[in-house]
Amino acid sequence: xxxxxxxxxxxxxxxxxxQEASHAFIDQLHKAMDDSHxxxxxxxxxxxxxQNSLTLVKKNKFMEFSCKEITSEVLSYLEKGQSVAxxxxxxxxxxxxxGKRYVLGSMHGDTNGLTSLPMMDALxxxxxxxxxxxxVIVGIDANTIRKENKKSxxxxxxxxxxxxxxxxxxxxxxxWDVSWTTCSARTFIQPQLQKxxxxxxxxxxxTTQLKDWILFYNWQLWLEEVxxxxxxxGVFEEKVMPTMSFPSDHALVSATLNLR
Length: 260
What we know:
It contains 5 helices and 13 strands. The chain has helices at residues 2-8, 23-33, 71-75, 116-130, 155-164; strands at residues 15-21, 37-40, 52-58, 63-69, 89-95, 101-108, 135-141, 167-169, 182-183, 208-209, 212-217, 221-229, 252-259. A 6-stranded mixed β-sheet has the order 4-5-6-7-11-8. A hairpin with a 5-residue loop joins strand 5 and strand 6 (101-108). The longest helix has 15 residues, at 116-130. The protein is globular and about 45 Å long. The N and C termini lie far apart (36 Å).
């Protein structure tokens, strides 16, 4: 169903970032989207958890022959003692629209979001030193939460630190309290019964979080608009997810970005 949503509702997207993809899901993507997109995957896949970050790029906008994976280069900029799980980072350099090269990063933070900033910092340092002339776009499931605490990465801290990297995002500060991209609540007839909530608490600030981000350098790109989709038809509704028609607990986040 998720592959169908991408192929039917979001097929016009120039770039699609996906995280936690299984091998079977990737095979289905090839079958459904090979006519419109190049499905780009890491050279080294996560064979244990089978959760991989990947990127799809529009065939009439990007040149596959020019694609160079730079994941290992990015990871080499992690600070001593820092590590990320296999498959959580996928970064490429590729020739795209307007004759420019683009660095595209698809990333997935750990459960508490504590690897999200180290990933972003490593990418920032790598790009600054090696790919400074290229346009950077990142799609990340940062696993950020609204409430600040020492055990989890907060929306505010993630925003502040990426701002220090001269990065903007698809989210404005005034949207943090009302915009959310994940829902942990479940109904009493869904799996994960321990997450079941009554209707009055299903969409509280504790059960809904802003975890998914699209990031870019402010001096390269500007944000025209951002949308969420948790229905599969390009519309966002304030309701518990996953559902039968949208089998994910993360909404799709789409942004229109323009070159400066």
